[in-house]
Design a protein that fits this description.
Layout lengths: L8 H6 L9 H29 L5 H28 L2 E3 L2 E2 L7 H4 L8 E4 L2 E5 L7 H20 L8 H23 L4 H5 L7 H19 L4 H5 L6 H20 L7 H29 L4 H15 L8 H11 L2 H7 L6 H5 L6 H19 L2 H7 L14 H31 L8 H6 L1 H5 L14 H12 L5
Antiparallel strand pairs: 1-2, 3-4
């Protein structure tokens, strides 16, 4: 029998103790949720964008998403986290500060815990039972996904250098403002706006900002607008699947605990997503006589977006109704209204982020104002008499508040996104050069997504470069 190992006493005493406040189950679930949300961006949206765009833009689109995911992190821990969830500077603006020090990250996480109206206490938020480091990572994933979603509006023509400058500026002056105002203790939080997991902070913000950015950057080449077939729909479906399953953490992690409300939020999320996908597919089949894989992806996304502001606040039957609405209203705005209104035709929103995120996010926030159940609202954040209009009382006021909250997010993102892009344009062109627009990935990056030689597999410039490399004796 092997002798039992003996741990030196000195080493035993140096082992860190588990603090009394730490709930290992909650911490584990929150870290898993954070990882699931992060995977929505990398690799989920990276793969989705790479598959949905024209072949010559596959690498550029994936790289824009990859870069944004990485660029958000240093901004987040150096100043943006505390701008979003720190002390108040203005009613809509938090004070910037570092979120990298050990004395900040190791202690128990804190959140805005009280709301006061005219001096009267009206609410108390959840009190997380895990370190601040867990919260910082969880909220980073949301910020990163938001700006990647925005990118979907400007794929196929925005200068990569302009995009590299845009990401940190937008996270600082746009995302952090919405996050602080609604989640971090700002004036919309104090007012009682309901946004369970980012229907406004993430999706409405990315849709409004993306549509604005598409206006300032300008449209793709006319040939690209007319013919923009996905280069790999199976790849796109894989990315969409990661995005969908990742939403389990996106909504399930927002009670900040592994509790009853997180379970309800997860189930409602998938009820709404599946219903929306089926309804969108029905409309495609009914009007265009064929079900569409791209349409199914769009319906899936609109369902996920719509349920997000109310995932843990509504009952299952309400999630079904929200799925029917999210499979119908954005379908109509994308497939019908966008072809009738000159304003929507003029602005080239590459992947329809305005419809899938701005329209669906606004719809979800409004429906939350109708269907938020008072008992379920109390599970998430204790707001006496908080309810949707469907349940009477002051529910009608809540519905109006939801519309006001959406208006603020839209207005702020339109204005600030415009200012950021106009400033960047003074130093860096927002659009690629004409040559880059014609050639695509090879001109923008000197690389292509699919390195197979043969007719139609490479742009002419890359094929010529390959021949030169062969002639020079390089192994390819």
């Amino acid at each position: 029998m092997a002798a039992a190992s003996v741990v030196p006493v000195a080493y035993q005493t140096s082992l860190p103790t588990v603090p009394d406040w730490l709930n290992k189950g909650d911490n584990t679930w929150q870290m898993i949720s954070a990882a699931l949300v992060a995977m929505q961006g990398m690799p989920g949206l990276v793969i989705l964008y790479a598959g949905l765009v024209k072949k010559k833009w596959a690498l550029n689109s994936a790289f824009m998403a990859l870069y944004a995911f990485a660029a958000v992190m240093p901004c987040w821990v150096l100043w943006a986290y505390k701008m979003s969830f720190g002390h108040r500077l203005l009613p809509f603006w938090g004070k910037a500060g570092l979120a990298v020090s050990q004395d900040f990250l190791i202690p128990r996480a804190t959140l805005p815990s009280t709301r006061y109206v005219n001096g009267d206490f009206i609410a108390q938020a959840a009190s997380p039972l895990y370190p601040m480091a867990t919260m910082v990572f969880f909220q980073f994933a949301f910020a990163a996904v938001t700006v990647i979603l925005l990118a979907g509006s400007v794929l196929g023509r925005m200068s990569i250098k302009a995009w590299m400058a845009f990401v940190p500026l937008w996270i600082t002056f746009s995302y952090s403002i919405g996050a602080f105002s609604i989640w971090g203790g700002g004036f919309l939080f104090q007012w009682g706006i309901m946004d369970y997991s980012g229907g406004y902070v993430v999706h409405l913000a990315s849709g409004a900002a993306g549509f604005t950015a598409a206006y300032w950057v300008g449209p793709r080449l006319q040939v690209d607008r007319e013919q923009f077939p996905p280069n790999n729909l199976l790849l796109a479906l894989a990315g969409a699947g990661i995005l969908w399953m990742g939403w389990t953490g996106f909504n399930g992690g927002d009670p900040f605990a592994a509790n009853v409300d997180s379970s309800l939020a997860v189930l409602n999320t998938h009820i709404c997503a599946t219903t929306s996908l089926l309804v969108w597919t029905f409309w495609d089949t009914f009007f265009f006589k064929k079900p569409s894989a791209i349409g199914a992806i769009q319906g899936m996304i609109t369902g996920l977006v719509c349920i997000t502001p109310g995932a843990g606040l509504v009952q299952g039957w309400a999630a079904l109704i929200m799925g029917i609405a999210s499979g119908s209203v954005p379908w109509y705005t994308m497939m019908c209204l966008s072809k009738k209104l000159p304003f929507l035709q003029k602005i080239d929103d590459t992947l329809g982020v305005f419809h899938t995120h701005a329209v669906a996010g606004t719809l979800g926030g409004a429906l939350t104002g109708l269907f938020a159940h008072p008992d379920l609202s109390a599970l998430f954040i204790v707001v006496p008499n908080s309810r949707g209009a469907f349940y009477g009382g002051r529910g009608g006021v809540q519905f109006l508040k939801q519309l006001v909250g959406a208006s603020f997010i839209i207005g702020w993102n339109v204005i600030v996104t415009s200012i950021i892009l106009l400033v960047i344009s003074k130093f860096i062109p927002l659009r690629m050069s004409e040559e880059e627009l014609i050639i695509g990935d090879d001109a923008a990056h000197g690389e292509e997504a699919y390195a197979l030689a043969g007719q139609g597999a490479r742009e002419k410039s890359t094929y010529n470069n390959m021949q030169l490399q062969n002639a020079s004796g390089f192994e390819l």
